[in-house]
Amino acid sequence: MEFVRLLLVFLHLLGMAVLVGSFLVQRRATAGGPPNAGWLHGAGLQLVTGVTLQLLGPATDQDYDHMKLGIKLLVLVAIGGLALAYTLKKTTPTWLNPTLGGLVVLNVGLAVFWT
Fold first, then answer.
1. Fewer CB atoms inside 10 Å of the end CB: C or N, the chain?
2. What's the half-sphere exposure (Cβ side, CA atoms, 13 Å) at 43?
C-alpha cells in the first residue's frame, strides 16, 4: 500500500509541474490566445491524485488536515474553472495567465508552509 501512496504523491507532484510548465509555456505564447491544454490536464491530474490520496489516508495511516485540503481543492477548482472557461473562447484577457500562475503558486505555498 505504501508503494501506491508514493506513486500517487509522485503523480500529484507531476501534475503540479505540468501547471507550472503550462504557465511558462503560456507566457511565451502569443498574447490573447486561449490557455493551453496543459492547464486542464495538470489540474485534472492534481484533482484525481489529491482526492485519491485523501481517500487512501486511513488505509495508509496518514492523517490529513481537512481544512487545508478543502482550501487547496477550492484553489484547484478555480484554476480548472478559469482554464476551462477561457479555453472555449477565442480570446482571453491579459490578466488570466498571471492569475492562473498566482493560484498555482498559492496552492504550492499552502502545501508546503501549512503544517
1. C
2. 25
The set of long-range contacts for 74-82, using a CB threshold of 8 Å and a minimum separation of 24, is 75/103, 75/106, 75/107, 75/110, 76/43, 76/46, 76/47, 76/50, 76/107, 78/103, 79/19, 79/39, 79/43, 79/103, 79/104, 79/107, 80/39, 80/40, 80/43, 80/44, 80/47, 82/35
Kindly report, residue by residue over 52-71, the tens digit of the pLDDT. 999 998 888 888 899 999 99
Q: Where are the domains of the chain?
A: 2-113
SS3 61: coil
Question: How many Cα atoms occupy the beta-carbon half-sphere of 53 within 13 Å?
Answer: 23
Would you state the cell numbers that stand for residue 47, as one nine-digit string?
484533482
**pLDDT exceeds 80 at position 72:** yes
